[in-house]
Amino acid sequence: MKTLHCLLLIMICLTLGSCVQSKQIEKLSVVTSRGTDQLENSEIETTLMIFQFTKPEGIVINPVFGKGKTIKGALANANLESRFELVAGKIQLELYGMELAKKGIFPYLDTLNRDARLPDSMYLAISVPTAKEVLTTKEQSISNNVGEHIHGLIKENAKDHFLPRVTLQTFLSKYYDIGVDPALPIIEIKDSIPKIRSIAILRDDKLVGEIESNYLLLFKILEETVRNEKFELLLPMKPFEKYLKNYTDTTKSTDKLNIALGLVKSKVDTSLIDNKNNVFQTDLWLDVNLLELSEPVDLNNDKSLKLLEKEINKKIEADAKGVLARIQKMNGDTFGYGKIYRTHQKNGKLTDELWHEIYPTIKVNFNVKTTITRHGSVD
Amino acid sequence: MRKRTRPTKQGNSVLPIAINELEQLLQDNFPNNPDLTFSIYHHHGKIMAVFYISYMVENDKIENYILDQSLKMKTDWSTQTLLNEIPLSSGKTNTSIDDVLYGLLLGKVFLYVEQEKEIIEYVLLNKDKRSLEKAETESLVLGPKIAFTESLITNLNIIRWRIRSTDLVLEEIIVGKKISREVRLIYMKSVANEKDVNTMRQRLKDLDVDEIEDSAVLSQYIEDSSFNLFPQFDTTELPDRFSYAITKGKVGLLVENSPSGLVAPATIFSFLESTEDLYMRWQAGSFLRLIRFLAMFFSIVVTPAYVAVITYHYEIIPTQLLLSIGESRAAVPFPPLLEALLLEFMIELLREAGARLPTKVGQTMGIVGGIVIGQAAVQAGITSNILIIVVAMSALASFTSPSYLLGTTVRLIRFPLIFLSGILGFFGLMFGICFLIIHLLRLTSIGTPYLAPLYPLSLQDFNNVFYRLPFSLENKRAKFNIPKELVRYSKKEAKKKQDIDE
Amino acid sequence: MEINSNIKAHLQFPAFYLFFIMFGVQTGVGIMGAPKYIFIEAKQDSWVAILLAYILLIIIVSVMLLILKQYEDADIFGIQVDIFGKWIGKLFGTIYILYFFVNLLSILLNYIEVIKVYLFPTISSFILGLLFIILIAYCVLGGIRTIVGMIFFFVILTQWILFLLYDPISRMDWSHFSPMFQASFPEILQGTKATTYSISGFELLFILYPFIQNKDKIKLPLFLGLGYTIFNLLLVTVISIGYFSPVDLADLDWPTLSLFKNVSYSFIERLDNIIIFEWIMVILPNLVLLMWGMTYGMKRIYNVSQKSTLYIASIMVLILIIFIQHDKQVTMITDTIAQFGFWLLFVYPLFLLPIVLIKKKWRRQREDEKN
């Protein structure tokens, strides 16, 4: 019995050595971000930012390029350039060139979904003009790796604030779902530093337009509950003039009131109120702290505070209406009104085509309720 | 006074016998033995022989109490009168010549008056022993620091003083056919589980060996299963730990000439218990015990996990950490498996060398090995410094075990696990851990499951095994030992509270 | 052969462990893919299908208990011989044993498939199979006491996986569930049928029953154990439906494992890599108890020593693992055993019960006549 055990163990040892492919980290080129661009001849070019561990330089970061018809083909092509095996298990960022995004990025996502070794938590973004240019920008001030920098940029923003989630999983989920379309950040090079330029509105996987980055927060609060965020608003000065503190020099006053608010918590709820005419109502509750006022408005007065809240409501409602009108024109349902529409249909059935016919005609009533809970240590 | 259980052979008694014949008989049985003192005295026409091995007995006592007293006697010598006149309490008569021969080796003095039917014996043994010292292998911060010595008498003395109760039983069992040795089976009559006591007694009595070298050897002879990694008896040199186990209903063994006592039934958790947990406040006691459990797990798993991750699963390392590990690995020419085995081997060398060397040199050794060699190895590019941290931490964790035996086992287990992780990654590691758990489940210690009270589950016993509650809440002994008396003291009394301002 | 199995007292275990045994033996590879199969049939109303499965499970297990209670201390092998006579009874017992064997094989093959797809595409199936067989054999050799202990430990040691589910829960989209109650009743029944593979295993109660110490307290741990299995299945399915979009979920092979792909912490990332291996602990209770059931059954029916069955079955499993390499074959075996399991586990007891009751009545009448 014992000898049998020993024999078995020896057999295992002998056979094992060769059968599992090892991935020792020092013999890998770890891909951290990948840019994909369209080439003229239906081929794609990928730019891979990789880490290599070498002696005596330590960590070496450099881009590798590969061309091919598929992502995996391009990876194999890039491998010809690299000393070690390229592995994508730690990939954090996928960048797509503008050209590619206009044609649709889904064909290049399939492998990401199919390959179980790739993480679901990678971020997706669109870059202007090409991914290659963004990733290979030479800038000393960005610590070491542009990919890492952009990842940090999106992560910092996507975790609790600003950007809607842009991971692979959320993208795919929105892509497959009927009645909601994904949105991605657009990255551009400004003064040779990558920066979020705007929000890309997609219809399914194709880029159809963009919205300026100052509406980022609006996108976020219309999608989910947001906590602990800061934003500023520009309100008209007119209604507040009578509440100005008496020591102010009224002659100097402007017609704009700049305020900075700290968002404590936001809550959003959308419902279909008129099934026939497709009228939706979006209620938005905002719980804010007042952080900054450009003019000395007397807040010790209940009325002035109420007025301020009302003006904020008005402003946000107007913003939301404006943005919605624009993305309705682009026909990308970023806010997911289709999902709500679908749940009110018989059998919950809705085709993508049908929804995109209805979508530009829907009406949404925005109803914002702001509460200023605190206004700092001065009135 | 010790009671001999050896059967005396009454049948072939050679007594009465002439003195010179007796001398001849002894000479024949101890050939070439210059140490046997055989002196003959005459008194009132009677002849008496006094014989003993000189360095085994206290010579002053023989002179002062036996020879002086008997030679001054007014009456005639006979067995009865001698027993009466000599002022020593341990006098006894014996008729078997075999017992006499054996008795010489136990430090007895024999008196024989010619033509009497019995030999008188006195126990006047003179045993050289070291004095009581502080425990070396199991050190404590709080609590009694005295350790067992090689002398069984001294050890019994300590135990009796610690457990002053008529309940305490110290059964004598002689083990060893060729060179016999005294073993004491120690338990509390009213507490200890009878099945355990019987099993232990049976195993000791059934033991058919020529000799036992030490209590550790005895434990290997009588354990439940020899083909396993884990110790099945708790070995301790601390009387307080020993007596604590006895009072809680376990069975103890003390072996002559061995400074460590055995306690059974042992569970894997009992090796991680220290009496110090009792001496601490209960919060600190629980915390330290928890730390020890974690340390054991950590010590077993951390190096294999490192090897598995570096060799196969780079994905699970966060990017920042991956960078620093990759950087330190870049210079190392070996695969992680070899690297880890090399370092573990080095640590084991250091430990072994430190244990063999005298204490003072041993300390220097540790510093030289730990700091100088470690530093040099990293600079020479033989190992990565992350691995040095990992290996050092796992070695450190393995030393937190209060039982040296368990610590050794834990260190031993690491090697197959490292090997498995090196060839199969996490699959190998999981395989190893599963195997280990099944292995532990199959073990028993004198019939008690080794993983009690986890399996069979006994939630009530978790107290005192995994944590320690204040004494007002722990009024029971461990249930899985099946003690005769479960309750230690009344809970009502312990919990009696006073009102405010009373 | 004896109808009653006369288990020695020291081999029996308290009914309390039945909770862990039921959960441990039901949860295995099935739950890895179950959300997909249930969802394909019952869509967003899958949760109704699973709750229905629980009701079905309670009925079937109650029927099993009723059958077992007609006898003093018998297991299914003894009962079948008593009911159908020596030849047919033994044949039915053999069918059970064969079912255990193929089920064991399908679990192993499925798990090996997962390892190959997720992590080691080039690893040899034989090696993985060999390591599993070593664990199974080592555990079965320890006897029923070790097996129950192993299940108890491994069930507890795998519970932490549930805590990781909070991450996918936080990413769920609840609109995937509405509008509710759209699936027709046949669709829901199809969904219920799709759960059978992932809740099979309770049939071992038929064999374990004589080993239980306090049979009067059997009900609570038994039904709680079944309930906990269903709870887990329900949890995983509901999260999968919310987390993946419908089109995606119908395509994914092992949605349960994919749920963990996003779980990352600052000190450790990609926990799915660890969970795949933690799954060894989830499937070992299945494998070991099935293997034990086989050896014990062979001993009861043909009086073959448990050790020889163990060794022969192990070698046969290893040989089959070498030959079955394609995922198509694995799927085919799994589908077949799931189909067969449905009839054997869910339908057969319902037929057995009336026969057992009639036979008992008939026997009592005859005894009355005699007297």
Automatic annotation (TrEMBL), chain A:
The keyword Lipoprotein applies. Residues 199-376 form the Spore germination GerAC-like C-terminal domain. Residues 22-189 form the Spore germination protein N-terminal domain. Belongs to the GerABKC lipoprotein family. It is found in: Membrane. GO terms for biological process: spore germination. InterPro entries: GerAC_N, Spore_GerAC-like, Spore_GerAC-like_C, Spore_GerAC_C_sf. Keywords: Germination, Lipoprotein, Membrane, Palmitate, Signal. It is a lipid-anchor. It holds the Pfam family Spore_GerAC_N. One of its GO terms (cellular component) is membrane. The lineage of its organism: Bacteria, Bacillati, Bacillota, Bacilli, Bacillales. Transmembrane segments: none annotated. Coiled coil: none annotated. This is Ger(X)C family spore germination protein. It comes from Oceanobacillus chungangensis. Its main location: membrane. It comes from the Bacteria.
Automatic annotation (TrEMBL), chain B:
The keyword Transmembrane applies. It is a multi-pass membrane protein. GO terms for biological process: spore germination. The keyword Disulfide bond does not apply. The chain crosses the membrane at residues 290-312, 371-397, 417-441. Belongs to the GerABKA family. Keywords: Membrane, Transmembrane, Transmembrane helix. This is Spore germination protein. It comes from Oceanobacillus chungangensis.
TrEMBL record, chain C:
It holds the Pfam family Spore_permease. The keyword Electron transport does not apply. The chain crosses the membrane at residues 15-34, 46-68, 88-112, 118-140, 147-166, 224-244, 274-296, 308-325, 337-358. It is a multi-pass membrane protein. GO terms for cellular component: membrane. Keywords: Germination, Membrane, Transmembrane, Transmembrane helix, Transport. InterPro entries: Spore_GerAB. It is found in: Membrane. One of its GO terms (biological process) is spore germination. Belongs to the amino acid-polyamine-organocation (APC) superfamily. Spore germination protein (SGP) (TC 2.A.3.9) family. This is Spore gernimation protein. It comes from Oceanobacillus chungangensis. The lineage of its organism: Bacteria, Bacillati, Bacillota, Bacilli, Bacillales.
